[in-house]
Amino acid sequence: MTRRQQGKYPDEVRQRAVRLVMEHRDEYASEWAAICSIAAKSVRTAETLRKWVRQAEIDEGRTAGVTSIESERVRELRREIRGLRRANEILEAASAFFAAELDRPQQR
Fold first, then answer.
1. Positive or negative CA dihedral for 42, 55, 11, 72?
2. SS3 state at 103
3. Cα separation of 26 and 18, whole Å?
4. Confidence of residue 6 (pLDDT cuts 50, 70, 90)
5. Burial class (CB in 10 A: 0-12, 13-18, 19+), 64
6. How far apart are CA 48 and CA 2, in angstroms?
7. pTM
Protein backbone atom coordinates (compact mmCIF):
# COMPACT_ATOMS: atom_id res chain seq x y z
CA MET A 1 0.00 0.00 0.00
CA THR A 2 1.46 3.33 -1.00
CA ARG A 3 1.72 6.35 1.21
CA ARG A 4 -0.97 8.04 -0.86
CA GLN A 5 -3.39 5.17 -0.24
CA GLN A 6 -2.90 5.46 3.51
CA GLY A 7 -4.38 8.97 3.60
CA LYS A 8 -7.61 10.14 5.18
CA TYR A 9 -9.87 8.84 2.47
CA PRO A 10 -10.36 5.22 1.42
CA ASP A 11 -9.51 4.32 -2.18
CA GLU A 12 -13.17 3.71 -2.96
CA VAL A 13 -14.08 7.28 -2.00
CA ARG A 14 -11.25 8.67 -4.14
CA GLN A 15 -12.10 6.56 -7.14
CA ARG A 16 -15.82 7.26 -6.93
CA ALA A 17 -15.34 11.03 -6.56
CA VAL A 18 -12.92 11.18 -9.50
CA ARG A 19 -15.22 9.02 -11.63
CA LEU A 20 -18.17 11.29 -10.81
CA VAL A 21 -16.23 14.37 -11.87
CA MET A 22 -15.12 12.77 -15.13
CA GLU A 23 -18.61 11.51 -15.93
CA HIS A 24 -20.49 14.70 -15.02
CA ARG A 25 -18.11 17.55 -15.84
CA ASP A 26 -20.00 18.32 -19.06
CA GLU A 27 -23.19 18.93 -17.10
CA TYR A 28 -21.65 21.91 -15.27
CA ALA A 29 -20.55 25.34 -16.48
CA SER A 30 -16.93 24.42 -15.77
CA GLU A 31 -14.89 21.54 -14.47
CA TRP A 32 -14.28 23.52 -11.28
CA ALA A 33 -18.05 23.83 -10.73
CA ALA A 34 -18.36 20.05 -11.10
CA ILE A 35 -15.48 19.51 -8.67
CA CYS A 36 -16.99 21.90 -6.10
CA SER A 37 -20.40 20.26 -6.33
CA ILE A 38 -19.11 16.70 -6.05
CA ALA A 39 -16.58 17.59 -3.34
CA ALA A 40 -19.36 19.02 -1.20
CA LYS A 41 -21.06 15.62 -1.31
CA SER A 42 -18.06 13.32 -0.91
CA VAL A 43 -14.86 14.98 0.39
CA ARG A 44 -14.11 18.00 2.51
CA THR A 45 -12.40 20.29 0.03
CA ALA A 46 -12.67 20.91 -3.67
CA GLU A 47 -8.90 21.34 -3.90
CA THR A 48 -8.36 17.78 -2.67
CA LEU A 49 -10.70 16.45 -5.34
CA ARG A 50 -9.09 18.66 -8.01
CA LYS A 51 -5.68 17.16 -7.19
CA TRP A 52 -7.13 13.63 -7.38
CA VAL A 53 -8.67 14.40 -10.77
CA ARG A 54 -5.37 15.81 -12.11
CA GLN A 55 -3.43 12.76 -10.88
CA ALA A 56 -6.01 10.42 -12.42
CA GLU A 57 -5.62 12.23 -15.75
CA ILE A 58 -1.85 11.78 -15.55
CA ASP A 59 -2.17 8.11 -14.54
CA GLU A 60 -4.51 7.48 -17.48
CA GLY A 61 -2.14 9.18 -19.93
CA ARG A 62 -4.48 12.08 -20.74
CA THR A 63 -2.06 14.67 -19.35
CA ALA A 64 1.72 14.82 -19.16
CA GLY A 65 3.25 14.36 -15.75
CA VAL A 66 4.68 11.86 -13.29
CA THR A 67 2.36 8.91 -12.72
CA SER A 68 1.59 7.56 -9.28
CA ILE A 69 3.58 4.41 -10.02
CA GLU A 70 6.64 6.39 -11.11
CA SER A 71 6.36 8.65 -8.09
CA GLU A 72 6.16 5.67 -5.72
CA ARG A 73 9.19 4.06 -7.42
CA VAL A 74 11.21 7.26 -6.96
CA ARG A 75 10.27 7.32 -3.26
CA GLU A 76 11.35 3.67 -2.90
CA LEU A 77 14.67 4.36 -4.62
CA ARG A 78 15.32 7.40 -2.41
CA ARG A 79 14.64 5.27 0.69
CA GLU A 80 17.02 2.62 -0.63
CA ILE A 81 19.72 5.24 -1.34
CA ARG A 82 19.40 6.63 2.21
CA GLY A 83 19.83 3.13 3.62
CA LEU A 84 22.83 2.42 1.40
CA ARG A 85 24.47 5.70 2.38
CA ARG A 86 23.98 4.88 6.06
CA ALA A 87 25.47 1.41 5.54
CA ASN A 88 28.38 2.94 3.65
CA GLU A 89 29.07 5.39 6.49
CA ILE A 90 29.06 2.52 8.98
CA LEU A 91 31.43 0.47 6.82
CA GLU A 92 33.77 3.44 6.38
CA ALA A 93 33.84 4.02 10.14
CA ALA A 94 34.46 0.33 10.78
CA SER A 95 37.28 0.16 8.24
CA ALA A 96 38.91 3.27 9.74
CA PHE A 97 38.64 1.70 13.20
CA PHE A 98 40.18 -1.59 12.11
CA ALA A 99 42.90 0.17 10.11
CA ALA A 100 43.82 2.13 13.23
CA GLU A 101 43.84 -1.09 15.27
CA LEU A 102 46.21 -2.74 12.78
CA ASP A 103 48.59 0.24 12.87
CA ARG A 104 48.81 0.24 16.66
CA PRO A 105 51.80 -1.52 18.20
CA GLN A 106 50.94 -4.86 19.70
CA GLN A 107 51.06 -5.19 23.48
CA ARG A 108 52.18 -8.51 24.92
1. negative
2. helix
3. 14
4. low
5. exposed
6. 18
7. 0.68
